[in-house]
Design goal:
Layout (H helix, E strand, L loop, with lengths): L6 E5 L8 H12 L5 E6 L2 H9 L22 E2 L2 E2 L2 E2 L1 E7 L5 E8 L4 E9 L5 E8 L4 E9 L5 E8 L7 E4 L7
Parallel strand pairs: 1-2
Antiparallel strand pairs: 3-6, 4-5, 6-7, 7-8, 8-9, 9-10, 10-11, 11-12
Length: 176
Amino acid sequence: QDLKGENILFMSPSSTGDSFGDAHYIDLYQKAGFQPNILLRTNDYESILMMVAAEEGISIIPEYCIGTLRSVNNITFRPLTYGSLNTKESYKYDASGNMIEKAEYNSSGSLRWKETNKYDSAGTLIEKTKYNQDGSLNSKTFYKYDSRGNRVEKTVYKGESTMPERQTVYEITYRD
């Protein structure tokens, strides 16, 4: 019922709509008491993601397609568990395509946790901050890199502590 009235961008392995997956999802819509308004039927998930980002409709896509979200703004990923909403993950990206915020919400829409990322001018991750559901600081992680862009240090602080919980230093040997 949550999808009633939505434009559906339907991912289908078949252009004719006669695959097992097509029949399964159409049957789910009909059991919910409505015919879906299918705006587009395609096997091109990148086109679907772009149209979702442009707010042309919504889609149910396989989990393996989620990796492409890193290059698409204005997308919200909501994992489904046996057809019902389990959690909602929200992603925000900067103009360079770097993920600057990720948040997870429970099925009632309450925040579970949030993390923010900061990048240097080259687009390299330098800081990750994680927050608890009440907005309090969970942890901060700082990253350092060598002149070649290889990570050489990772330092994690828990909560408001000024003492590192753990620090990892990487030893890199170059064979030029």
